[in-house]
Amino acid sequence: MSAGAKRVVVLDYGSGNVHSAVKALARAGAEVELTRDPKAVAEADGLLVPGVGAFDAVMQQLRAVRGDELIDRRLAGGRPVLGICVGEQVMFERGVERGIETEGLGQWPGTVRELHATVLPHMGWNTVDVASGSTLFRGVEDERFYFVHSYAACDWTLEGRGESTRPLVTWAEHGERFVAAVENGPLSATQFHPEKSGEAGIRLLGNWISTL
User: Fold this and answer.
1) Residues 85, 122, 154, 183: which is the catalytic one?
2) How much is the average pLDDT of 75-82?
């Protein structure tokens, strides 16, 4: 590990197997810690919010460790956060899953819902339609990434005040178009799993780390 390595905290709030994310970040060049300690979360160069399972369960787990407050505080101070899979979904206003409507973190307007597709879950490798000017996808624009989900945000309504603040939205398709990734100031997120996406995923994580 180089002396100038960026420090990234993976938020440990009880969501699934996070160790693959820890290993992938380390491979991408970060100094990584798995913790929910508020001081460590606040002081890290970057915070990664993983997420596996149901929207409602993830929100309950986040709130149980005050993860919602920790994320909000970092973003209010312009401190980088990266959400992955359900960690992306909970950044939206709400999720609707099996008839249960759950309030999300509300960083972005919109609702996460079940995809209109003949086969669910959407599981496996898929291409993405990368936003022009993307930093996250620099050098991996034409690669495939690994998805495992049945729910997604299928609309994007938030607009910036100008070109410099306009959110960059990357799309993918499974039955219908859905949000595959967002770059919005200090907050970035991917619906796919970069930590399960081979070398392309490692490069994407490295691109994020380079912005910290």
Assistant:
1) 85
2) 98
